[in-house]
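Quick one, tokens below:
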């Protein structure tokens, strides 16, 4: 007991509070992430194509605003101010959605996405500032933070599934509102310990701080009507894709003109691996979209006499991540001790192969469907497990890869492009999910054919990219160098 107290005493002020704040801050997002498509189709009676498109834009805005959030917090509002301001928008957004109308859905999403898109980076910035650059405890703190996030996901998915069984959507979004409000309460109680320690804003005079605070507040709330408009615009998806294309062209140009040969080779390796990650995340983001519609309408969700709520399926990923992460890490240590070379190209290739196999498990399951066209739950479970293991291989090394391969002057744009990948992937996931016919009661047999075609194409295509990456492993290893070889 004394040892535990001594360890807790060494935790920097604010780091422990951020663990619990992360739990409650995640609940609202997990509810919307796992429920939006079902709410749009079952309560608002949107066609599946329209619901899939909204979910795609939801992910694009949420992930795309992350980078801007760090800039806005560090230079205008402070990270703790922006975090609380973003959470306030999320609370109001969930409350609006709970009203249950189409108009309030769009306003609620605009409020929520502006808040969640901007404040996610803030909590990471507040945490990293608790530690000095040479402090080895930072890695452990982020692992705890990641665990807190997954606890929030587990709570949110579980509650969403429980309310889904009775389609009590209004009560569900009120629950999300309460969860987000608790994050604000915890942040308020720990306000002094969450102060920024190292940001450009700290060099501002009191007058400059007030001026920047006003500008930042106007930007924060001014983004809401912009997002509201873009959510309903037909050209929003194309706009985001064009922006991503321009970023890609910029990165290729910067790589071509870069003078340092070693750094240029690293940048080419980064571009190849980033493209492969786009393939992975485009399929991964189908979990709350097309895969969820498939689960609801084409999978037998009765397991051991208990009906599995569709949102509970998302917890397969949460459990695999929480328990599989340490096990996979220990296994890699063992393999490396045995002389195996477990590096970034090999992990990316394996993740793509696992994602492809995860999607190919679904057509196999459809082959074993019953007379009503309902697929045994095992095959969906297997698909999620394979996808989750793939995530463990690709997700943790992504940001570390940027720190290793990006030249100092390009780290900002390369980090931004990596964050944009998930948003772009969400749009592609919406496009893929919109390729199936509208689901309906008793229509499993008629839509299974379309699902077999879609899942087979996506699965084999991803396996093909994975095999190509396997063939490129020797080439990528020659490109990636940490220092000039002499």
């Amino acid at each position: 007991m004394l040892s535990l107290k001594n360890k807790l005493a060494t935790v920097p002020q604010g780091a422990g509070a951020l663990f619990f704040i992360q739990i409650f801050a995640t609940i609202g997002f997990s509810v919307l992430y796992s429920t939006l498509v079902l709410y749009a189709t079952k309560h608002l009676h949107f066609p599946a194509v329209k619901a899939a498109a909204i979910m795609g834009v939801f992910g694009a805005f949420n992930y795309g605003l992350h980078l801007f959030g760090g800039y806005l917090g560090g230079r205008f509002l402070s990270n703790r101010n922006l975090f609380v301001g973003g959470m306030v928008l999320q609370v109001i957004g969930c409350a609006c959605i709970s009203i249950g109308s189409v108009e309030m859905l769009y306003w609620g999403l605009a409020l929520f996405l502006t808040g969640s898109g901007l404040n996610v980076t803030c909590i990471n910035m507040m945490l990293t500032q608790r530690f000095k650059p040479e402090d080895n405890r930072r890695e452990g703190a982020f692992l705890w933070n990641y665990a807190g996030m997954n606890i929030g996901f587990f709570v949110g998915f579980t509650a969403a599934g429980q309310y889904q069984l009775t389609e009590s959507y209004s009560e569900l979004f009120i629950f999300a509102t309460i969860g987000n409000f608790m994050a604000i309460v915890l942040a308020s109680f720990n306000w002094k310990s969450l102060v920024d320690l190292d940001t450009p804003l700290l060099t501002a005079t009191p007058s400059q701080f007030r001026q920047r605070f006003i500008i930042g507040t106007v930007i924060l709330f001014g983004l809401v009507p912009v997002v509201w408009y873009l959510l309903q615009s037909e050209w929003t998806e194309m706009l985001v894709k064009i922006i991503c294309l321009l970023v890609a062209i910029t990165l290729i140009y910067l790589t071509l003109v870069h003078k340092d040969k070693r750094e240029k080779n690293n940048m080419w390796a980064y571009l190849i691996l980033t493209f492969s990650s786009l393939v992975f995340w485009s399929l991964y983001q189908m979990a709350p979209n097309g895969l969820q519609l498939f689960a609801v309408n084409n999978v037998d969700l009765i397991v051991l006499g208990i009906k599995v709520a569709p949102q509970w399926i998302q917890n397969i990923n949460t459990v695999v991540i929480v328990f599989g992460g340490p096990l996979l890490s220990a296994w890699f240590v063992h393999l490396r001790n045995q002389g195996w070379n477990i590096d970034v190209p090999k992990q990316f290739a394996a993740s793509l192969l696992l994602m492809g196999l995860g999607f190919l498990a679904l057509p196999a399951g459809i082959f074993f469907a019953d007379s009503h066209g309902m697929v045994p739950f095992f095959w969906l479970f297997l698909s999620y497990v394979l996808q989750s293991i793939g995530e463990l291989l690709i997700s943790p090394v992504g940001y570390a890869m940027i720190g290793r391969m990006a030249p100092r002057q390009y780290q900002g744009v390369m980090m931004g492009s990596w964050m944009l990948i998930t948003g772009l992937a969400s749009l592609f996931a919406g496009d893929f999910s919109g390729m199936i016919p509208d689901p309906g009661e008793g229509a499993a047999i008629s839509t299974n054919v379309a699902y077999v075609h879609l899942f087979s194409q996506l699965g084999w295509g991803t396996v093909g990219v994975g095999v190509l990456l396997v063939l490129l492993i020797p080439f990528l290893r020659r490109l990636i160098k940490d220092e000039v070889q002499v």
